[in-house]
Amino acid sequence: MGIENNECIIATTSANELILKLKKWIETLPEDQQSLFAFIHCIVNGKKTVVLGPDGSKKGWCEAYKGEKLRNTFIEKLKEFDYEDGSNPFDYVEVGYGEYGQKVLRGNCTNKYGDEEYYRT
After folding, report:
1. Computed from CA positions of residues 78, 106, 65, 55, in that sequence, does the dihedral angle turn out positive or negative?
2. In what order do the strands lie in the sheet with 101-107?
3. Residue ranges per structural domain of the chain
4. Which of 8, 19, 28, 100 is most exposed, with the fewest beta carbons within 10 Å of its own?
5. What is the pTM of this model?
6. Closest CA to 90 of 31, 117, 55, 50
7. Span 7-54, pLDDT tens digits
8. Strand, helix or coil at 101?
9. How far is CA 4 from CA 57, 58, 67, 100, in A?
10. Burial class (CB in 10 A: 0-12, 13-18, 19+), 36
């Protein structure tokens, strides 16, 4: 058996050259890992998003450990783009959802506008 929970990473930037660097890095990964990545072009402001989708495994399976290692490696790759002041050209978040419920596991975004829920249209 095993617990079914999904984990993925979403990263958005307007730095096209960094998206190209990520694509080149992804091409060095094994083919089964490459297939977990998707690139999305936003409709305004020239932003692009890269998604590392869930690996599909259950907790405790060897694939789950491989997926965790890939997510950790991807976050470290994103951190390589940190500026001297600690900021990063990517806004990124890792989320988990499934039998554990849903939550933000980690990311680099901070709320600059207070504790109220942000405005949605």
Report:
1. negative
2. 37-41, 48-52, 5-13, 91-98, 101-107
3. 5-107
4. 28
5. 0.90
6. 50
7. 999 999 999 999 999 999 999 999 999 999 999 999 989 999 999 999
8. strand
9. 7, 5, 13, 8
10. buried
Neighbouring residues of 60: CB distance < 8 A, sequence distance ≥ 6: 2, 3
Model confidence pLDDT, tens digit, residues 76-99: 999 999 999 989 999 999 999 999
How far is residue 91's CA from residue 84's CA, in Å, rounded to a whole number? Answer: 16
Select 5-107's CATH number: 2.60.40, 3.30.70, 3.10.450, 2.40.50.
3.30.70
Pairing relation of β-strands 5-13 and 91-98? antiparallel
